[in-house]
Design goal:
This is Phosphodiester glycosidase domain-containing protein. Helix content is 19%, strand content 32%. The protein is built from 4 helices and 22 strands. The strands form 5 sheets. The protein has a 7-stranded antiparallel β-sheet, covered by helices on one side. Strands 6-22-7-20-21 form a 5-stranded antiparallel β-sheet. The radius of gyration is 33 Å and the shape is globular.
Length: 307
């Protein structure tokens, strides 16, 4: 209330002048008391509950007096957000691509399809919700699949072969020969054509996935690719460079096979690279709180950090 005191008139025989003075005094008293009370409240609010503003960096907060203090860590969608992302953007021939790099000394690569004895996850989000995400560096879709999400080509998960090598002829990207296999064990990762894999690999790897077509074979582009053909899609692939690092690349805009393959050959200097899929391509990068959705996927490749 603003200083309007509620006062009962007792009907005394005071003069009109004295009555007026008596009215003014309590009004002044109440007004002053109210003003002092408001000032005290304002001081208490400033000291106890400061208004805070975040710096753009998010590292500090400041109260209204200008004093600084360290902010509590911002909440994240994943424990992995404390680690730097393994993925970096690149512009190549006017197309934005993201290159996620797995290094043998830092990372472990595995495949995933679904929980043991269960149906395929069908999405990175479903997979993320079913595993301990703290050690995951990133994950991507890993090759062609049937209507149930099961791989149509060679697939090994945790040393168990779930699907044999597919050498059949057919239509579609998978059968655009040569197709190939990405596989590895204990930090030794390789991309080979399916025929080379069939003739030279004797021991079962810890992981493996078959897809097609090959993007780069021995430093040369797939023979059926045009320089920049009319077929364009969001695409992703994998290739291993001379240092043994695996490059998982996803385009952020529709791109042709030819341009996508040239990025591997010319920019990343990768001699052998394999196409994983298009249109359903997806990336989970916990450090950047990115998890792509969209159409259902099948097998996945998961990169985790070593302890």
């Amino acid at each position: 209330m603003r200083g309007e005191g509620r006062r009962a008139d007792r009907g005394s025989a005071r003069s009109s002048a004295r009555v007026e003075r008596d009215r003014i005094r309590p009004v002044k008293r109440i007004f002053l008391l109210t003003l002092l009370s408001l000032v005290a409240c304002d001081q208490q609010q400033e000291a106890g509950n400061p208004v805070i503003r975040h710096d753009i960096s998010g590292d500090t907060v400041r109260d209204v007096t200008g004093a600084s203090k360290k902010a509590a860590p911002a909440p994240s969608e994943s424990p992995s957000a404390a680690f730097a992302s393994a993925c970096t953007p690149h512009f190549f021939e006017d197309v934005l691509l993201t290159d996620c790099v797995a290094e043998p000394g830092k990372h472990v690569i595995s495949t995933a399809l679904g929980p043991k004895g269960g149906a395929p996850y069908r999405s990175l989000k479903a997979y993320a919700g079913a595993v301990e995400a703290g050690s995951v560096a990133f994950a991507v879709n890993a090759g062609m699949f049937d209507k149930e999400g099961k791989p149509i080509g060679y697939f090994v998960q945790g040393g168990d072969r779930l699907k044999e090598l597919n050498r059949a002829d057919g239509s579609g990207n998978f059968h655009m020969k040569p197709n190939g296999v990405f596989y590895g064990s204990s930090g030794n990762w390789h991309v080979k054509t399916s025929e080379d894999f069939f003739s030279s690999v004797r021991d079962r790897p810890a992981f493996g996935t078959q897809s097609g077509p090959m993007l780069v074979i021995g430093g040369k582009l797939h023979p059926e690719f045009q320089d920049d053909g009319p077929s364009k899609a969001i695409r992703n692939g994998v290739g291993v460079d001379a240092q043994g690092r695996a490059h998982f690349v996803i385009s952020e805009a529709p791109v042709s096979f030819g341009k996508f393959a040239r990025f591997y050959r010319d920019e990343l200097k990768v001699a052998n690279a394999l196409y994983l899929d298009g249109s359903v391509s997806a990336l989970w990068d916990p450090a950047k709180n990115r998890i792509d959705g969209g159409a259902p996927i099948g097998p996945m490749l998961v990169v985790t950090r070593k302890d």
